[in-house]
Amino acid sequence: MKILVLADIESKYLWDYFEKEKLQGIDLIVSCGDLKPQYLSFLASFTKAPILYVCGNHDDCYESTPPEGCICIEDKIYKFNGLRIMGLGGSVRYNKGKNQFTQEQMKNRLKRMWLKIKWNKGIDILVTHAPARGLNDGDDYVHKGFEAFIEILDTYKPKYFFHGHVHKNYNYQFVRESQYKDTIVVNAYERHIVEVSQK
Hints:
globular
């Protein structure tokens, strides 16, 4: 299965120079946040693939202008072709944004997901905006990751972890894909295609 992951910056390849053929063969599109709702709505009008999204720290406008034709998976587990996909958007709190959380608040969000995870017998893909703490996160406070995400990876061992928030131009050590124990970690900055093996 081919999953197109997106985050943080609208891809000129897909928006300014769009051709419908560029989405052919894509089974699922996943936004990891900080993208204009108009961009996701635009893509939704050209594909039959579901477009799932979580909110980034700059997506406060989603409350009044959600992406049309797309599916919000915040605090949910969405099933697609046998894959259990869990969404937890937002970043570490640094001001009064709606999609910012303290470490403790994110841990509480995870606790509230426990029953859903148990009901679904685990998860296959974790979708977030921020990275996990100490796992390809930023050096500055705003781009630090969440400790709760490490807990998810250690406890539930999803096959994949998609996130954004850490931009390619922030430093020369940008990591697109890496491995953490049983999980493939993917930074979705701009756009990237992930070939996902199904059960």
